[in-house]
Structure prediction request, 548 residues.
Amino acid sequence: MQATFAATLFDEWYRHGLREVVVCPGSRSTPLAVAAAGHGDLTVHVRVDERSAGFFAIGRALATSTPVAIVVTSGTAAAELHAAVAEADLAGVALLVVTADRPSELHGVGAPQTIEQRDLYRSAVRRFEEPGVARLEASSSWRPLASRCWWAAVGVDGNGGPVHLNVAFVEPLVAEPLQLPGGRVDGQPWRQDESRDVVAGEIDVRGRRVLAVVGRGVHRETVASMNDCGWAVVGDATVSSTIAHYDGLLRDPGFADAARPDVVVRLGGLPASKVLAEQMRRWRIPAVAWRGCGSLSDPDGAIGVSYPGLPDFAEQRLHADSAYREFWVRASTAVEQWLEDRESLDGPLSEPDVARAVVSASAEHAVALVIGSSMPVRDVEWWAPPRTAPTFANRGANGIDGVVSTVMGVGAGGSVVGLVGDVTFLHDVSGLVDGLGTGGGRCVLVVVDNNGGGIFSFLSQATALSAPDFESLFGTPRQHDLEAVARAFGHEAVSVSTRAALRAEIDAGLLRDGVTVVVARVPDRTTNVTIHDEYVAGVAGVWRSNPS
Prediction:
């Protein structure tokens, strides 16, 4: 009966659109693992580390824009998924988290691999279901159960994310499934999708200066529609075709005054730039938001009104003063030209150089890019040209958890370029164990090696503490040979110190099956702060010499 129950879940999810399942080895989850593998039309990724597997599943869901199921056994295996569930919650990534459990009679009596899994992830999941041990008389409820989980994950109300199905199994765990309970005719899912609203809202921006601030969840097509309406669109590193270099420009008071909008529009997540957030607070312009791109980030309470769905860009009242957008584009273009003029193929690499080279390589090869947290995402957002290839980052919880695994998930079966720091690389080194998995693919993972946590050198801790205390608590240098670490897991690895060498190794890696780790040697963390200050001063100079 348990085998039939598990097979029914995957059959119903397949009808809804499930195509990939991540499975971690374990005994209690045997019925689920066997059912997924036995379905025949599902791709099953086997990962040995649950923490890594959770972020790998996030990568697959990001790359495919489709929910992914992840199956783990009971006990601490379920707890290992918590970080990935938190990220999926805040980033709106649809995951079907299926945890096996012991039956109720084995709880509280010292049975092995038994912890309290009820509501384990609390409010981080869109829905929690615990149907108990499968019973024949309840078989008519199995497909509706699977369907409820699916619709909660995709979020027909625009708020998709992870769901948690905690399933108890009893011995014996291996059996052949019987005939599955009937579903809807012609293999249709249990219930049809509900379309999202597309609304214009009540605002009229004709002839006004509109600044759209967009982030996680906003698609290229939406940005293109905003551009057509004359909106100036700035966004986080994951959004394609937005106006580049806004952070450096807004650091200049003259530009910030000249760029003051009449209307601020918000969709999706928020960019990493604190400068942008501070400037919006100074402008004191309540933002108008639409919720059709997933959950809105609004830590400052700046959104005055929000509407469901997406703007109806065909409405003439949403067509703004295009001269304002052109003002932003001219300033951004001048900065990009200044940055290009500074580039040297043979000179030493800086961290902004690495970000620019990686983004350019991703665009030229038309392969997905995954960006790590801390400095990489900021350097891409601030200094790189606009992204044109699909770009992803774990910008929900903004942590360095599982980034290597997310890179592998996005690249499995295809091609990907990843950009991470050395601490992020070491933090998720277990992602290298299974690499791209049985699906193969090509992955170039660029690791910025500044021997520690570079972002802390920009924060107050760097000046408030003694140098030894700062290095011990925040700089956290590690003396690992990153090339040797990568090779120990069977991957190609090389170090580079010039832009020309970096591009050559990225290009070569994208022609090579498997994982290639490219270690980018950059100046020390203190010098990196100086370099960023020089870039900011240079951007201000560009604006002041071309203020129109």
The chain has 21 helices and 17 strands. The chain has three domains: 2-175+182-187, 210-332, 343-542. The radius of gyration is 25 Å. The mean pLDDT is 92.
